[in-house]
Amino acid sequence: MPLRTRTTRKHEDELAGVAEATTIPFERALPVGLLRAREAVMVHMRPILRAHGTTEQQWRVLRALNDVQPMDKTTLTNHAALLMPSLLRILKDLKQAGLIRLVRSQTNRRLTGVILTPRGAAYVAVVTAALAQKSIILKQVIGQDTVEQLLDLLRTVELRLSTIKTGSD
Amino acid sequence: MPLRTRTTRKHEDELAGVAEATTIPFERALPVGLLRAREAVMVHMRPILRAHGTTEQQWRVLRALNDVQPMDKTTLTNHAALLMPSLLRILKDLKQAGLIRLVRSQTNRRLTGVILTPRGAAYVAVVTAALAQKSIILKQVIGQDTVEQLLDLLRTVELRLSTIKTGSD
DNA sequence: CGCCTCAAGTTAACATATTAAGTTGAGGAA
DNA sequence: TTCCTCAACTTAATATGTTAACTTGAGGCG
Predict the structure, then answer these.
(1) Cβ-defined contact of A160 to B141 (cutoff 8 Å)
(2) Which residue numbers in chain A have pLDDT < 70?
(3) Model pTM?
(4) Among chain A residues, CA nearest to B4
(5) Is residue A165 part of a domain?
(6) Per the domain annotation, does A94 fall within a domain?
(7) A142 located within any domain
(8) Whole-angstrom Cα distance, residue B140 to residue B136?
């Protein structure tokens, strides 16, 4: 009998016998694992962001700016894990909402620094506070140690992978 | 002077002094960490998938099916970390490509099981082989132990979070 | 200087994901 | 049996992300 380690087993009987089940016991692929774990966290965070009128992506931008200011657009794409065209649209919206401001560099006119307006900074503070409460609960559920270890490992992965060249080789 | 722990520092001088920098030293948020780590991995995997004519999402579906078969659509959305409408579109494409087949349950006509066709299974085998090579390299770069620990932690996170209720509370 | 190349950003066309409003069948209670 | 409710899709609209082609300015070199 084939292994079937991790199904919901809800409708298993009803669908059973239609085809052979394969035998790979558990999903041990890093990309999917990272994605699923992220989704498990975001399910709890998203409603809070929504309640404050922000999307996930907008929030990533605001949060990145809260860490370092001013930041040029290219650097922002890295920090917010966004592609340039997506970032541009988001910046347009954030600017219209009066949360950010663009500042052209005096010495290099190709660079545009992005900064939070006072209102933007206040907004980040409010949302951060709202998220913090949930964050504490989630950390308790996951386990403080687990979270710390995980963050360290994630950083390690990013760092080590950044040393090798990207793409097809 | 404000902290500025983690910028590329490339254009720092040129943009400096336009606004106050805030003082949060390092991005320690789980969602972004997971996202960035995933991206760091996917940058190396995506070209291989592309070369075989698959998208990331299609591959997640195929891989999930390779683990457990047959699987109903709702369960598939969980395993492939996809929303239903996205899954439906992908299944339509995969079916047209002759890689999967749908089987209606005899006992519960609401359920549609998804299975790989022989051609689909062969395809998965080929792409898996192609990915495996890169995967070995990446694991070496990241470190075997790190990867194993990380996978365990990710699983722990998912498991523990699945015990609490989702949404706004 | 005048040419070259490349980084930074922009835009438009296209692909994909998300939300929301249906549809259909199962299983249970009156 | 008939009605009720809910789970499992399905579809259409909308938003968002992705690719690719283009523009502009910096900095290097003959």
Answers:
(1) yes
(2) 1-27, 165-169
(3) 0.81
(4) A68
(5) no
(6) yes
(7) yes
(8) 6
